[in-house]
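[User] Once you have settled down, look closely at the record that follows, and write a paragraph about the fold.
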Amino acid sequence: MRGPHACARRTSPPTLSGVTLHAIILAAGRGERMRPLTDHTPKPLLAVRGRPLIEWHLLALQRAGVREVVVNTAWLEEQFPATLGDGSRFGLRLHYSMEGRNHGGALETAGGIATALPLLGEVFWVVSGDVFLPGFGFDAAPAAAVFDGRHDAHLWMVRNAPHHPRGDFALGSEGLLTTGDEVDERLTWASVGLFGAALFRGVAPGTRLPLRPLLERSIDQRRLAGTRWDGAWTDVGTPERLAALQHA
Protein backbone atom coordinates (compact mmCIF):
# COMPACT_ATOMS: atom_id res chain seq x y z
CA MET A 1 0.00 0.00 0.00
CA ARG A 2 1.25 3.45 -0.75
CA GLY A 3 1.13 6.09 1.94
CA PRO A 4 -0.69 9.40 1.60
CA HIS A 5 2.53 11.17 0.62
CA ALA A 6 3.16 9.06 -2.47
CA CYS A 7 3.83 10.89 -5.71
CA ALA A 8 0.67 12.31 -7.23
CA ARG A 9 -0.68 10.78 -10.40
CA ARG A 10 -1.71 13.83 -12.42
CA THR A 11 -3.24 13.72 -15.84
CA SER A 12 -4.58 16.33 -18.19
CA PRO A 13 -7.57 18.31 -16.86
CA PRO A 14 -10.51 15.91 -16.64
CA THR A 15 -13.74 16.17 -18.55
CA LEU A 16 -17.04 14.53 -17.73
CA SER A 17 -16.69 12.08 -20.60
CA GLY A 18 -14.10 9.36 -20.24
CA VAL A 19 -12.51 10.31 -16.91
CA THR A 20 -11.97 7.62 -14.28
CA LEU A 21 -12.92 9.09 -10.94
CA HIS A 22 -11.30 8.36 -7.61
CA ALA A 23 -13.07 8.46 -4.25
CA ILE A 24 -12.28 8.98 -0.60
CA ILE A 25 -14.37 7.42 2.15
CA LEU A 26 -14.12 9.33 5.42
CA ALA A 27 -13.58 6.81 8.19
CA ALA A 28 -11.28 8.44 10.73
CA GLY A 29 -13.74 9.53 13.43
CA ARG A 30 -14.02 8.12 16.94
CA GLY A 31 -17.82 7.68 16.88
CA GLU A 32 -18.41 8.89 20.44
CA ARG A 33 -22.22 8.85 20.15
CA MET A 34 -22.10 5.21 19.06
CA ARG A 35 -20.35 3.99 22.20
CA PRO A 36 -20.10 1.31 23.46
CA LEU A 37 -20.39 -0.21 19.96
CA THR A 38 -17.40 1.79 18.73
CA ASP A 39 -15.17 1.04 21.71
CA HIS A 40 -13.86 -1.98 19.82
CA THR A 41 -15.09 -1.48 16.24
CA PRO A 42 -14.77 1.64 14.05
CA LYS A 43 -18.20 2.97 13.12
CA PRO A 44 -17.83 2.36 9.34
CA LEU A 45 -17.11 -1.32 10.08
CA LEU A 46 -20.34 -1.84 12.04
CA ALA A 47 -22.68 -4.11 10.13
CA VAL A 48 -25.92 -2.96 8.52
CA ARG A 49 -28.09 -5.69 7.04
CA GLY A 50 -25.30 -8.22 6.88
CA ARG A 51 -22.34 -6.14 5.70
CA PRO A 52 -20.17 -3.36 7.15
CA LEU A 53 -21.43 0.16 6.42
CA ILE A 54 -18.34 0.98 4.40
CA GLU A 55 -18.84 -2.00 2.10
CA TRP A 56 -22.14 -0.57 0.86
CA HIS A 57 -20.15 2.42 -0.44
CA LEU A 58 -17.37 0.30 -1.91
CA LEU A 59 -19.79 -1.80 -3.92
CA ALA A 60 -21.75 1.22 -5.14
CA LEU A 61 -18.56 3.02 -6.19
CA GLN A 62 -17.38 -0.03 -8.08
CA ARG A 63 -20.70 -0.27 -9.92
CA ALA A 64 -20.32 3.39 -10.88
CA GLY A 65 -16.92 2.75 -12.49
CA VAL A 66 -14.67 4.00 -9.69
CA ARG A 67 -11.57 1.84 -9.33
CA GLU A 68 -9.30 3.71 -6.90
CA VAL A 69 -10.61 4.43 -3.39
CA VAL A 70 -8.83 6.04 -0.45
CA VAL A 71 -9.99 5.32 3.09
CA ASN A 72 -8.75 7.78 5.70
CA THR A 73 -8.43 6.26 9.16
CA ALA A 74 -7.47 7.09 12.74
CA TRP A 75 -9.55 5.35 15.42
CA LEU A 76 -8.73 1.60 15.54
CA GLU A 77 -7.33 2.14 12.06
CA GLU A 78 -5.50 -1.18 11.84
CA GLN A 79 -8.91 -2.86 11.53
CA PHE A 80 -9.58 -1.33 8.11
CA PRO A 81 -6.84 -3.04 6.07
CA ALA A 82 -7.36 -6.20 8.14
CA THR A 83 -11.06 -6.23 7.16
CA LEU A 84 -11.02 -4.75 3.66
CA GLY A 85 -7.59 -5.76 2.38
CA ASP A 86 -6.36 -4.25 -0.85
CA GLY A 87 -9.88 -3.93 -2.27
CA SER A 88 -9.51 -6.62 -4.91
CA ARG A 89 -12.51 -8.61 -3.70
CA PHE A 90 -14.62 -5.51 -4.40
CA GLY A 91 -13.07 -4.92 -7.82
CA LEU A 92 -11.19 -1.90 -6.44
CA ARG A 93 -7.74 -0.77 -5.38
CA LEU A 94 -7.85 0.52 -1.82
CA HIS A 95 -5.33 2.95 -0.36
CA TYR A 96 -5.19 3.96 3.29
CA SER A 97 -4.39 7.44 4.57
CA MET A 98 -3.55 6.53 8.16
CA GLU A 99 -3.94 9.73 10.14
CA GLY A 100 -3.51 8.07 13.51
CA ARG A 101 -0.15 6.53 12.62
CA ASN A 102 1.18 9.47 10.61
CA HIS A 103 -0.33 12.48 12.39
CA GLY A 104 -1.31 11.37 15.86
CA GLY A 105 -5.07 11.37 15.31
CA ALA A 106 -7.96 12.33 13.06
CA LEU A 107 -7.47 15.49 11.01
CA GLU A 108 -11.19 16.34 10.56
CA THR A 109 -12.81 16.37 7.14
CA ALA A 110 -10.92 19.06 5.20
CA GLY A 111 -7.60 18.17 6.80
CA GLY A 112 -8.08 14.50 6.03
CA ILE A 113 -8.96 15.15 2.39
CA ALA A 114 -6.08 17.58 1.92
CA THR A 115 -3.63 15.05 3.35
CA ALA A 116 -4.90 12.35 0.98
CA LEU A 117 -4.79 14.54 -2.16
CA PRO A 118 -1.70 12.81 -3.64
CA LEU A 119 -3.81 9.65 -3.90
CA LEU A 120 -6.77 11.38 -5.54
CA GLY A 121 -7.37 12.86 -8.98
CA GLU A 122 -8.35 16.40 -9.90
CA VAL A 123 -12.04 15.56 -9.30
CA PHE A 124 -13.14 12.88 -6.86
CA TRP A 125 -16.03 11.57 -4.82
CA VAL A 126 -16.19 12.21 -1.07
CA VAL A 127 -18.53 10.12 1.07
CA SER A 128 -18.73 9.64 4.80
CA GLY A 129 -18.24 6.09 6.00
CA ASP A 130 -21.03 6.40 8.56
CA VAL A 131 -24.00 7.26 6.35
CA PHE A 132 -26.29 4.68 4.78
CA LEU A 133 -27.66 5.56 1.33
CA PRO A 134 -28.15 2.23 -0.43
CA GLY A 135 -29.83 3.59 -3.56
CA PHE A 136 -27.27 6.28 -4.37
CA GLY A 137 -25.65 5.61 -7.74
CA PHE A 138 -22.61 7.95 -7.67
CA ASP A 139 -23.67 9.51 -10.96
CA ALA A 140 -21.39 12.46 -11.72
CA ALA A 141 -23.51 13.88 -14.55
CA PRO A 142 -25.25 16.59 -12.44
CA ALA A 143 -21.84 17.90 -11.39
CA ALA A 144 -20.38 18.69 -14.82
CA ALA A 145 -19.35 22.20 -13.73
CA VAL A 146 -16.90 20.75 -11.20
CA PHE A 147 -14.96 19.14 -14.04
CA ASP A 148 -14.41 22.38 -15.94
CA GLY A 149 -13.58 24.37 -12.81
CA ARG A 150 -16.68 26.55 -12.63
CA HIS A 151 -17.71 24.97 -9.32
CA ASP A 152 -15.52 23.88 -6.43
CA ALA A 153 -17.82 21.02 -5.47
CA HIS A 154 -21.30 19.59 -5.90
CA LEU A 155 -23.14 18.31 -2.84
CA TRP A 156 -26.15 16.03 -2.67
CA MET A 157 -28.73 17.31 -0.20
CA VAL A 158 -31.49 15.49 1.70
CA ARG A 159 -34.47 16.37 3.86
CA ASN A 160 -33.59 17.32 7.42
CA ALA A 161 -33.69 14.51 9.95
CA PRO A 162 -35.34 15.06 13.35
CA HIS A 163 -31.94 15.28 15.03
CA HIS A 164 -30.83 18.04 12.63
CA PRO A 165 -33.95 20.15 12.01
CA ARG A 166 -32.19 23.31 10.80
CA GLY A 167 -30.19 21.53 8.12
CA ASP A 168 -27.01 22.88 6.58
CA PHE A 169 -27.61 24.85 3.37
CA ALA A 170 -30.38 25.87 0.99
CA LEU A 171 -30.66 25.27 -2.73
CA GLY A 172 -30.83 28.63 -4.45
CA SER A 173 -31.00 29.84 -8.01
CA GLU A 174 -29.09 28.04 -10.76
CA GLY A 175 -28.59 25.07 -8.45
CA LEU A 176 -26.15 26.96 -6.23
CA LEU A 177 -26.09 26.43 -2.50
CA THR A 178 -26.57 29.28 -0.04
CA THR A 179 -26.19 29.48 3.71
CA GLY A 180 -29.99 29.53 3.84
CA ASP A 181 -30.28 32.53 6.15
CA GLU A 182 -32.70 34.20 3.72
CA VAL A 183 -35.10 31.25 3.20
CA ASP A 184 -37.36 29.06 5.32
CA GLU A 185 -36.28 25.67 3.97
CA ARG A 186 -32.78 24.41 4.39
CA LEU A 187 -31.57 20.93 3.57
CA THR A 188 -28.95 18.62 5.09
CA TRP A 189 -25.79 17.64 3.27
CA ALA A 190 -25.99 13.87 2.74
CA SER A 191 -22.21 13.62 3.32
CA VAL A 192 -21.65 12.70 -0.32
CA GLY A 193 -20.37 14.98 -3.05
CA LEU A 194 -18.08 15.46 -6.00
CA PHE A 195 -15.14 17.73 -5.19
CA GLY A 196 -12.37 19.45 -7.09
CA ALA A 197 -8.89 19.16 -5.62
CA ALA A 198 -8.36 22.92 -5.92
CA LEU A 199 -10.68 23.52 -2.96
CA PHE A 200 -8.10 21.91 -0.65
CA ARG A 201 -4.83 23.09 -2.18
CA GLY A 202 -4.25 25.77 0.45
CA VAL A 203 -4.42 23.23 3.28
CA ALA A 204 -1.07 21.74 4.28
CA PRO A 205 -0.96 17.95 4.74
CA GLY A 206 -1.35 17.04 8.39
CA THR A 207 -3.47 20.11 9.21
CA ARG A 208 -6.54 19.60 11.38
CA LEU A 209 -9.35 21.48 9.68
CA PRO A 210 -13.13 21.01 9.39
CA LEU A 211 -14.81 21.26 6.00
CA ARG A 212 -17.47 23.84 6.81
CA PRO A 213 -15.22 26.95 6.49
CA LEU A 214 -14.13 25.89 2.99
CA LEU A 215 -17.73 25.28 1.93
CA GLU A 216 -18.87 28.65 3.26
CA ARG A 217 -16.06 30.39 1.39
CA SER A 218 -17.11 28.57 -1.76
CA ILE A 219 -20.72 29.66 -1.20
CA ASP A 220 -19.61 33.28 -0.87
CA GLN A 221 -17.88 32.94 -4.25
CA ARG A 222 -20.95 31.28 -5.82
CA ARG A 223 -18.93 28.15 -6.57
CA LEU A 224 -20.77 25.50 -4.52
CA ALA A 225 -23.62 23.64 -6.23
CA GLY A 226 -26.07 21.03 -5.08
CA THR A 227 -28.75 18.53 -6.05
CA ARG A 228 -31.64 17.39 -3.89
CA TRP A 229 -31.80 13.63 -3.40
CA ASP A 230 -34.94 12.00 -2.04
CA GLY A 231 -33.72 8.43 -1.73
CA ALA A 232 -33.21 6.51 1.50
CA TRP A 233 -30.56 8.11 3.71
CA THR A 234 -29.56 7.65 7.33
CA ASP A 235 -26.85 9.28 9.39
CA VAL A 236 -25.92 6.25 11.48
CA GLY A 237 -24.92 8.35 14.46
CA THR A 238 -26.43 6.47 17.41
CA PRO A 239 -27.02 2.84 18.40
CA GLU A 240 -30.76 3.52 18.13
CA ARG A 241 -30.51 4.59 14.48
CA LEU A 242 -28.38 1.55 13.71
CA ALA A 243 -30.96 -0.74 15.34
CA ALA A 244 -33.77 0.94 13.41
CA LEU A 245 -31.93 0.27 10.13
CA GLN A 246 -31.51 -3.39 10.98
CA HIS A 247 -35.27 -3.79 11.41
CA ALA A 248 -36.52 -1.51 8.65
